[in-house]
Amino acid sequence: EVQLVESGGGLVRPGGSLRLSCAASGFSFRASFMRWVRQAPGKGLEWVSTINPSGTTSYVDSVKGRFTTSRDNTHSTLYLQMNSLKPEDSAVYFCATGVDARGQGTQVTVSS
């Protein structure tokens, strides 16, 4: 059974940083494409980033240059380093894989 557990969210001021983690189990993490998606209040899911098994990444334009996705295949953990955070980054952040497997999410709130 695929299990994804996100952590690291919280309240941060604009311009601040957070690092999200996603602990994965129940599937071959090292062979899997992994994604970060987010959902702001009242809005649909938005794709944020993808990382392939080799570590190549892609990002939605709104976070390019500010967010960095990485992975630790030894520990089956996915990371999202978020810098220069903006209020519009406020959302529940999920890690995801496959067609629709994702965790319970972690709340990120950017506010002064």
Care to describe what's here?
Helices cover 0% and strands 52% of the residues. It is built from no helices and eleven strands. A hairpin with a 3-residue loop joins strand 9 and strand 10.
Brief digest:
Helix content is 0%, strand content 52%.
What layout of secondary structure does this protein have?
Blueprint lengths: L2 E5 L2 E3 L5 E8 L8 E6 L5 E7 L5 E3 L7 E6 L4 E6 L8 E7 L3 E2 L3 E5 L2
Parallel strand pairs: 2-11
Antiparallel strand pairs: 1-3, 3-8, 4-5, 4-9, 5-6, 7-8, 9-10, 9-11
Could you name the key traits of this structure?
7-stranded mixed sheet, 0% helix
The 3D shape can be described as: globular
Query: Helical amount among residues, as a percent range?
Result: under 10%
Could you tell me the radius of gyration in angstroms?
Answer: 13 Å
Strand content: over 45%
The biggest sheet, with number of strands, parallel, antiparallel or mixed sense and barrel status, is: 7 strands, mixed
The total strand number stands at 11
Count of individual helical segments: 0
What is the mean predicted local confidence, pLDDT?
97
